[in-house]
Amino acid sequence: MYKVKVYVTLRESVLDPQGIAVKGALHSLSYTEVKDVRIGKFMELVIEESDRDINELVREMCEKLLANPVIEDYRYEIEEAVAR
Amino acid sequence: MKFAVVVFPGSNCDVDMYHAIADELGEEVEYVWHDEDDLDRFDAILLPGGFSYGDYLRSGAIARFSKVMAAVKQAADAGKPVLGVCNGFQILLEAGLLPGAMRRNQGLKFICRPVQLTVENHETMFTSAYEKGEVITIPIAHGEGNYYCDEQTLERLVKNRQIVFRYHGENPNGSLADIAGIVNERGNVLGMMPHPERAVDALLGSADGLKLFRSIVNYWRETHVVTA
């Protein structure tokens, strides 16, 4: 069993309206050190071992469904989890 | 002429769409549930607004994998008119039937009010009943209508006259180049954020949307009805 953590964020070139609003809020709380905020999604997948290569499988899922490659980037971490 | 209104779990403008076609336009129309896989009996396909699959993950991201979407793609490939409004537009983008993607509105708020649009291209099968450059009033109702595409795609959209509607005056959601609606290269798939089906009777505040549906019927008659 694998535990996979997937992070999806808007691409650098795409304006993130939520991130800008949150940055503004942090500034109004006087955290003026904050230069940029990007908001994204965090997903946790539990995947059974199969014939498929786990990296290949996760990339495929990210590109097909979990992220929209037109506006989003993704990255992931794979942890080998012990069956409960 | 026979229209299909595709219904996904979470669609909520399907009844308005049906009403516009059946009662205002006076054409045949039928609801089609998302698990149907055959749309051959229809001449035009309408994807209504709403919150298909609760907008989970991204608007339209899950609906695009429903069974009916393969049939919608077939209809599009066959050159039939396909119209996606609001969530329907988002689904067409996710399905790759139109280029680009939607971001949250610039002001982060869900906006529901009438807006003015310029008809940028009145020479499509969806807009032939409008005058060149006509300014029309159609309501919007969305939280994610901030259209985005890369520069090359935008150049292509402009060059091929694929931008059909732009926001006139104020841009409510921050969309790139004030885009409110685009067609595919072939010109038979239109996606738009404003709701023409909510503007089909002066009693509702505007009847400007009716011409869009009339254009589709005119196009169909010109190509299918042989005069004796």
From TrEMBL, chain B:
Mostly located where? cytoplasm
UniProt subcellular location: Cytoplasm
E.C. no: 6.3.5.3, 3.5.1.2
Please name the InterPro entries in this protein's record: Class_I_gatase-like, PRibForGlyAmidine_synth_PurQ
Q: Record's superkingdom?
A: Bacteria
**A GO biological process held by the record:** 'de novo' IMP biosynthetic process
A GO molecular-function descriptor: phosphoribosylformylglycinamidine synthase activity
> Which Pfam families does the entry link to?
GATase_5
What residues make up the catalytic site? C86, H195, E197
Report quaternary structure and partners.
Answer: Part of the FGAM synthase complex composed of 1 PurL, 1 PurQ and 2 PurS subunits.
Its function, per the record, reads: Part of the phosphoribosylformylglycinamidine synthase complex involved in the purines biosynthetic pathway. Catalyzes the ATP-dependent conversion of formylglycinamide ribonucleotide (FGAR) and glutamine to yield formylglycinamidine ribonucleotide (FGAM) and glutamate. The FGAM synthase complex is composed of three subunits. PurQ produces an ammonia molecule by converting glutamine to glutamate. PurL transfers the ammonia molecule to FGAR to form FGAM in an ATP-dependent manner.
Q: Under what name is this protein listed?
A: Phosphoribosylformylglycinamidine synthase subunit PurQ
The source organism is Geobacillus zalihae
**Chain's gene name:** purQ
